[in-house]
Amino acid sequence: MPRHLSPVLAPTRARTRLGVRALALLLASAVLALVPVGAANAASPPSAPTGVLAVAGDTTVTLTWVAPASTGGSQLTGYRLRYSTNGGSSWSSTISTSSTALTYTVTRLRNGRAYVFQVRAANRAGTGPWSVTTAAVTPSAVVTPPPPPPPPPPPPSGAQHVAVPSYFYPGALWTQLGAGAPTVGLAVVNPSSGPGTAPDPNYVSQVSQTRALGIKVVGYVDTAYGLRTLSDVEADVDRPFSGHHVRHRPGSDGGLASESVELVPISCGFCR
Could you tell me what percent of the chain has a pLDDT over 90? Predict the structure, then answer.
C-alpha cells in the first residue's frame, strides 16, 4: 500500500475501536436495566411454620399450622408435609401441596397406629426448615352409639300407676287418696309397732271404703329398722286375728303420723 494513504487509514481504525467500546457499554447498560431493584438482596427460603396441630379421624389426620414468620422475601408457593410411625426415626415421602391454606388432611392412614407430623413452607427460592414435630396422634374408626331403646308402652287402662305410702290416720287425707283412683292403685298402711289387740272401727271403715274404689290396701309390721328379732316379727305376722285388727295410739301430732298406728299387715283380713 502507498505510504501516502496511511494518514487516512489511521483515523478509521481509531473510530472503529471507539464504536466497539460504545456498543459494549450500551449492552452492559441494557443488562443492568433488566436486573430488578434490590437484586443484591436476593430471596431466600421461608422460615418454619409454627403451632402445628394434628387431630386424628377415621384413617385420617387433619393438620393445622401458623404461617412462617418470614416468607424469605418471596411469596409462598405452598407447603410440604411428612409423617413418621416410629417417633421420627424415619419419615414418609414428602407430601407437596401448591395451596397456601394453613390446613391439610392426610388420608389413607392406618387406624390404631400412632403418627407424628412435620410441615415446612416453600417459595421460589426453595423450601424452608421443617417445623417442630407434632404430638403423636392415632386414627381410629368412628363408633356410632346405638340408638336409645324405644319408650315403654303405656300401661293398660286401669293399671296401677302410683303406690301411696298412707302414713296417716283415716280422715281427709284418705279421702284425697281415694280420689286418685285408678291412678292410685296401691295404699301402703305403715304402722310402727306391730298388730293391735282390738279392731279400730275407723280403720275398718276406711279400708273398706278404699278397697271399694279399686285401691288395694296393704301394710307391714314394725321391724324397728332391723333391731327386732326375726321371731318377734314373725310372731306379729302370724298372730291369729280376724278381721281388721288395728288399733290407733294417739301421738304428739294428733295421731296422723305412721308412728301413731299399729296394724296387722299380712295375716289380717284387710292386708290380703
Answer: 36
